[in-house]
Each structure stands twice: as structure tokens, then as C-alpha cells.
Amino acid sequence: MKKGLGELERALFAYVGMTQQPVVRTGDLVDALQLTPRSERNLLSRLAQAGWIARVKRGLYLVPQRLPLGGKWSPDEILALTTLMTDARARFQICGPNAFNRYGFDEQIPTRLYVYNDKLSGRTTIGRVELTLIKVAANRLGGTEQVRTREGLRAVYCSRVRTLLDAVYDWSRFNSLPRAYDWIRNDLAERNIKASELVAATLKYGDIGTIRRIGALLEQAGVATRLLRKLAKAAPATKSLIPWIPTLPKRGTVNRRWGVVINSAE
Predict the structure, then answer these.
(1) Which domains does the chain have, with CATH numbers?
(2) What confidence score (pLDDT) does residue 1 get?
(3) What are phi and psi of 255, to 5 degrees?
């Protein structure tokens, strides 16, 4: 047990253990532990700095159900994320590298949690949980699947199809092109997804550049003409060309239908 753990600290952990609620806000302990507001602030700040509890944001903390033995405590990723998003009243979904790993597209395990949401942006840390919060318009949220954790929490991930779409749409943030093209080809070939599902997701959550790149890719893959027509209808003809791989020089064969310069050996 940590040296110097005093009566107030023990009382806090006893209170959380009794209530079975891991979330503590400033003001909760004033009556429960008979503290002054200043004493409460000092107690929570002291424990957060020592690593025994985790500060979510100003005035909001996560506390373990029992005294952490043998070292500092950090909340589970989903608990940290859910607490922050619930406080912000935000809709959210885990995306990018975390979803790439979840569906087996990328073997690298991310050290951060990437999250689309409609309220918060920037980077933050809760305990040892590092979060990258990506604020998007409400109409870009959706296309998800939910998983229940062992603790009974709800983890919301981008679906497999939505993840592939985002790998093309958000390529600059996730450094996911041209890898995403292979992921999509393989999933279509192995029937993990349907071309119609990808087209629907592209039309709902993509932008013009994404529609054009996905259209060129699906045309290469020999997808049904009726599906390509849906994409083409949403991407008006243009003389402005975009690169197939944005990080490479815009030199190569031109796909006029989609306005894409195929600047690779694909």
C-alpha cells in the first residue's frame, strides 16, 4: 500500500466501493465525506497526481472500486472514453487505426484510441489512456457495430465497410493510402463485404474525392455497372483531376470517367 495514504484517501475509496460508481465529480464528496470544497479539490488533485485515480477533465475523475495495490491505476480504454463522451453528451465511434487492427487490415496495435465524435476535438490523456478526438459533422456518424466488454460497457466501432471507406476518405489522417485499395480488393474477393454495401457507405459518408477514387477502384474490380452508375451520378463530370495516391506526383494514366490520375503501377 502506498506510504502516506491517509484517512481521507481511505474514506474516498471506501465511498466509491460502497456506491459502486467509478465516476466522482467535484461536489460529490462534500456531504459524503464531510469535506469543505477546498479540501475536496485538494484530495482529488493529490490522488490524481499520484496516479491513484484518473482525471477525465476538470472536476471529473475516475476512481477504482478498490485500492490499487502494487502501483498506479489507470482505467480501461472503453471506460475512459465512455465517461468522457457521456459527460460531453456526444455521439462517438472508434475509428482509424483501432478499427484497422480490429478487422485484421493492419497488425500494428495502436497506442492511442482514435474516436470520431460530434462534440470534442484534440488529444487528451485519461490515466494511461491516450485519446485522439476527431470532431465530425453529425451526419458523418453512423455505420457502426457495438461490442460489449467484459465489464458490461458498450464499445462502438466503425463497421468493417465504414472502416474501409474511412481509410480512403481520411487517408491523410490515417496514412492509409494506397494500402486501403488492397484491403478493399481483398475483402471483395473474399466476400467479407459486398460492393453494394461499400457503394452505399461511400454515398452516405464520403465526399466527392472519395466517390471518385472508390468509383475508379470498383471499376477496376469489375463491379456491376448499375453500382458504378450510382457513384457516377453523385460525382459530376469535371476537368479537374485528382491523384489515385495523393502522396505521389500526379503523373500517370488518366481515368476520364472518374477524373483520377492513376499514378502508380496498379
Answers:
(1) 7-62 (1.10.10), 74-158 (no CATH)
(2) 40
(3) -95, 100
